[in-house]
């Protein structure tokens, strides 16, 4: 006889694409962190230290996991410079699908057909406009 697990969803739950959960290139830690990042509210304003405060993992662990997500195209990093050319900040664009897979939706199939939510930036260069709530500032 098999065991049955049921999840009661009444409120405060997240709907996201399953794509990253089925990506065998990602570690379980990367899948978990990306899921947490995608579950945050649209107006969330956070940085690497803020992400590390959401779990028992330290800053270095979160940073290495974000680097893994970047390596596989789920996160894109852009350094922001001042008018004088000095480094001011780092901006991250977080995606439900890796950058190289956004235009190939049938590469990794999900259990059920349907439209998946895509995080999109506002600029033509693939990065959001300043103040986009889907960014992480370091």
Structural account:
This protein has 138 residues and is of the alpha+beta class. Helices cover 22% and strands 13% of the residues. It is built from three helices and three strands; from the N terminus they run H-H-H-E-E-E. It has helices at residues 28-39, 48-52, 59-71, and strands spanning 75-81, 87-94, 135-137. Helix 1 crosses helix 3. Residues 104-134 have low confidence and may be disordered.
Top-tier CATH class:
Mainly Alpha
Count of DSSP-assigned helices: 3
SSE order, as H and E?
Answer: HHHEEE
How would the global form be characterised?
A: elongated
Low-confidence stretches: 104-134
The value of Rg in angstroms is: 16 Å
CATH topology: Arc Repressor Mutant, subunit A
Write the CATH architecture name.
Orthogonal Bundle
Tell me the structural class.
Answer: alpha+beta
- N/C terminus separation: 50 Å
Write the layout of secondary structure elements.
Elements: H1 28-39, H2 48-52, H3 59-71, E1 75-81, E2 87-94, E3 135-137
Antiparallel strand pairs: 1-2, 2-3
Helix pairs in contact: 1-3
């Amino acid at each position: 006889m098999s065991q049955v697990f049921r999840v009661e969803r009444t409120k405060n739950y997240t709907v996201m694409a399953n794509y990253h959960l089925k990506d065998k290139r990602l570690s379980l830690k990367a899948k978990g962190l990306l899921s947490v990042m995608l579950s945050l509210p649209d107006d969330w304003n956070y940085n690497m230290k803020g992400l590390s405060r959401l779990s028992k993992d330290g800053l270095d662990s979160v940073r290495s996991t974000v680097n893994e997500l970047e390596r596989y195209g789920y996160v894109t990093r852009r350094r922001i410079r001042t008018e004088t050319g000095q480094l001011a900040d780092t901006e991250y664009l977080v995606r439900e699908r890796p950058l190289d897979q956004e235009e190939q939706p049938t590469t990794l199939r999900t259990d059920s057909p349907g439209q998946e939510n895509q995080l999109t930036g506002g600029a033509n260069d693939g990065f959001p406009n300043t103040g986009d709530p889907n960014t992480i500032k370091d």
